[in-house]
Amino acid sequence: MEMQKEYEISIDPRILELLGPNLYTNIYYILAELIANAYDADAHNVYIITKSDRIIVEDDGNGMSYEEGVKKYLRVAEESRKTPAEAFTQEGRRKMGRKGVGKLAALSVSERVEVKTVHNDDKSGFVLARYIDKDNKLEAIPEDRIIFERISHNGTSIEMLNPQYTLNKTPEVVKKNILKIFPHVNKDFRIHIKLTGKKELTIEDANKEIIGQLGGLYILDDEFAPLASFFNNEYASKEKPLLKIKKSFKKLLKLRNKNQEEKDYQLEIKGWCGVYRSTSGRKKDADDFPDNFISLYSNKKMGEYNILPSIGKNRLDEVYVVGQLHIDLFEETELPDMALSNRQGYKTDDERYKQAIAYIREDLLPKVLELRTLYSSYKKESDKLKKLDRQKREEEELRKKVDAYKESASKNATEKITNLLGARGNANSSGIQNIIGNEINELLPIAGFKRKVDAKKKKILLSQTRADKPLSDIIYKMLLFNGIPAEDIIYSNCDDQVCRIPEGSSIYDYLREFFVESYSTEKIYVLYVTSKTMSTAWGALAEVGAGWITKVGHKVFNLKVLSADGVEETFTPQAPLNIQAEWHNSQKNSDSTISMEELDRDRFAAKIEAVCQTLGYSPKSREENLAELCSYLKE
Fold first, then answer.
1. Would you list the DSSP string of 62-130?
2. Distance between CA atoms of 169 and 174, rounded to whole angstroms?
3. What is the pTM assigned to this prediction?
4. Cα–Cα distances in Å, from 479 out to 404, 511, 527, 610, 634?
5. Each residue of 221-246: pLDDT tens digit?
6. In this structure, are strands 568-569 and 551-562 parallel, antiparallel, or unpaired?
7. In whole angstroms, what is the distance from residue 592 CA to residue 68 CA?
8. Other CB atoms closer than 10 Å to residue 99's CB: what's the count?
9. What residues contact residue 384 under an 8 Å CB cut-off, 6+ apart?
């Protein structure tokens, strides 16, 4: 005869009514709690199944016997890890659960939750509900209804009836959100997602997708070093270190345990942090978890999803940051519990938390953001090289088109004129004009391609030496102020790499390929910064020569240098520069600031405006230019 099982829950019904709908704020936190319970039950497979009237989370773990498992399960808020031995499962997994309230997670989704479990043919089933009788007795589920969807032997099924949250997503979106809060998935612990009307999806590799999207990766501890195999960055190399593997962070803390004994405990932080290559296309739905976060885990269970808002400094590049850090000391059995009841954060006044946050904010995060800066720099350099290669191919194409046209035009014109003369004995001017006109028409497509080639070329060369960078920077800023794009300027010492010739190339090669050995008639305008230093710098002199050959026009900005002891170092520009024209004079002071007399400020503004007009840009007014210029000068 079947034993009549009773299911009595040890909790005040009023607390159950209060906690049920308010314990968790997101369906994925709830799923993570149920998945964690399956993990602690030594499950190897967890199934998330949706039907028209329920969400089911089913696992193939040990299940619960009525006497030893179910009765313990119904003792709510009883700590499950009181001794070091209780901190591990039968298969040796470190347990995630501790508080004994995660079992109530499903009540945040549904008012009625059916719990079905089997352990060695011992079947138990009951309805966990928000509203129960005063005697705390739960509705029993008959044994003939204790049937699993996918499990054939031991296991547990949590069925949330008429759920208030839904999973109206694709399996891929559900997978993405689950992995953000429960990344500890592998071939020994798989999650299967079967949504109504959708093909089943199995998760058995947690970090491959995220790591593969990173531009930089910082790994703490060899335990997480295998993640490096997923990091595939075209810019990473020994010369460009975008992947760093370091030892875990360790710090000895003196803490008081639950027995009020003061002992030394080691705070250890392991895991990984990285920066995305791009932020486009992320977090498409409002209820999706953000893609940029730093999560904290303890004993492989997420304790806080995102600490970035509390540790960041509102830098723009923080939106690229993502990471998962593991701090098992947060769940040390001997120490007081510091996790909040809903598993969505930690007690911020706990010394363990304060020390961890201090390291992440002051040490780890700046290093991770440094990787973003490096990645951005390498990408821009690569993009410049690709752009240069495209320009070279277009130059070559233009050269071939022009050569082919010259050959065919001369041949065709000769043949046609010869035929015209042979047919008539003489030729009138209109006949010859028609022939030439037709050949010119053949050139029009080439002319259009030439304009395309010319449009991509740099327009201004700022010829200078590094010692004269203070004045060169002012010239550069004034060009930008007047609407000239940085992409149109060559400035070899510019802080913005878009103006520098790509690494591995030289300005001489660039000028030769695009302005000397080219059929394009486009020329470059040169702004010379002359000084005593420039006159003795071979690179600057060679640049003057290269610029002279390719220029359409030039302006001279001359610089005298005032030393700390008041000695002036002057220079007079020489040919081949246009020494007949009035040049501009500035003074570089001993503190590297620039000074100009009133007349030279006006000359400076006039030269900038003239350059703009020559190249087809609309300059600012003289008044606006003088005001902007004065903001860069020392009185």
1. ----IIIIIHHHTSTT--S-SSGGGGB-TTSPBP---SS-GGGGGGGT-SEEEEEEEETTEEEEEEEES
2. 6
3. 0.63
4. 39, 21, 11, 11, 20
5. 999 999 998 888 776 666 668 999 99
6. antiparallel
7. 80
8. 18
9. 497, 498, 502
